[in-house]
Amino acid sequence: MLKIYSLYFYSMLLALDVATSCGVCYNVRKKLYIGTVVGVPSEQYIWVKENTKFNEVVIEELVSYNSRQPKILVNLAQRVGYLYHRFVEENIPVRWAHPGSWRKNLSLIQSKAGTRQLQISLKETFKVALSLDEVDAVGVWLFGMQLNVADIESYKIVKLGINRV
Questions:
Q1: What is the strand order of the sheet 31-38 is part of?
Q2: Global pTM?
């Protein structure tokens, strides 16, 4: 029983907002690492595996309103599918977070305006500027951890920056 408790207590959750500029957020104890990885999905996956620590992944679900342009929507679907499959192949538990669900969890407006609300809240709380991709990843992480912004005020934020691969 102790082993299960310690695994839960030290759960390291990786949250991804998948795109050309992939938002990344993960935790190790009371540190929250936030950044972006820019590149093709195979190189993004390699970067994530080599530079982050996690034992579970939550990916923001792709929904049709992510883009009104079919070519962009197909590109996003391929990226999400590639990363999802790579984690599954490695036997890493993967969950989905619908954008509307994580925004509702944080009592935000149900659109990109909700992401901007969260961006402002995080800047006020942590005195750190985050891109919209990074903010989406934080929202997905909060949803995956079943936390609110107030729950992470004791966390230290570590910026990973923009990583081009």
A1: 94-97, 56-60, 13-17, 21-28, 31-38, 156-164
A2: 0.89
